TrEMBL record:
Signal peptide bounds: 1-28
Gene source species: Succinatimonas hippei (strain DSM 22608 / JCM 16073 / KCTC 15190 / YIT 12066)
Top-rank taxon, per record: Bacteria
GO terms under cellular component: membrane
This protein's record includes keyword Cell wall biogenesis/degradation: no
Chain coiled-coil ranges: none
Protein name: ABC transporter, substrate-binding protein, family 3
Keyword annotations: Signal
Gene Ontology molecular function terms on file: ligand-gated monoatomic ion channel activity
InterPro entries for the chain: Iontro_rcpt_C, Solute-binding_3/MltF_N
Amino acid sequence: MRINPMFCLKQKILCGIAALCTVLSVQAEDKIMRVGAEPAYAPFEFIDEETKELTGFDIELIKAIAEVEGYEIEISTMPFDALIPALLTNNVDVILSAITITEERKKRVAFSVPYYDSGLTILINEKDKDKVKSVKDLEGQKICVQIGTTGANYASTQIKDAVVSQFNTAPESYLELKAGGCVAAINDRPVNDYYLATNKSEGIISLPGTLSSESYGIAMRKTDEDMVKAVNDGYQKLKENGTLDKIYSKWFGSSK
């Protein structure tokens, strides 16, 4: 049987188009950024009480980075101490939740350039201000912290005979402090400051000064060089086009 040459040409064209569509589809699928975040660390990431949506400085930052780099974004929420395990088991590609860059963490993950400078501060009940005036006064006392944080590490390793009570979220540690279940709570300065600015913090004050100097970074797998480059490139673009300053001003009241 003779086959029409034009029919063969049409078939080849159709096959070529189908193959191209398949390639484009795979490429599109490859441009998804899977993000992990803890939803209880205001003002960096938290659930808005009115909209019930995840919001915060970190959330707006990573969405903006994904947009300028051409990624679709999928955000999963999980406890803070589950973030690095989720990253290392390939359940997400990027994690951020005001994660302090430390030498110990750098052994396990790759960090972006630092995007926020912070430090640890101490919250106490105002009624205790005459007997708790510095970190020295916390020796042998019960201290509330969040699991997996630098605040938890500081309380456990730097305060002599401290009784460290760990909670899944920062708000839970604040509730325990307010109820008198501990003498102090240690956490990151911007998170403590945000809590103090709310009407839920009545009777709680911050001791002056900071316990440490820290920087936050966006974490990725060390083997995912393309994602590390995309996040750093995207961050630089936001710095250059003014978007980073706008996001920073919205959440912290001044330009970075």
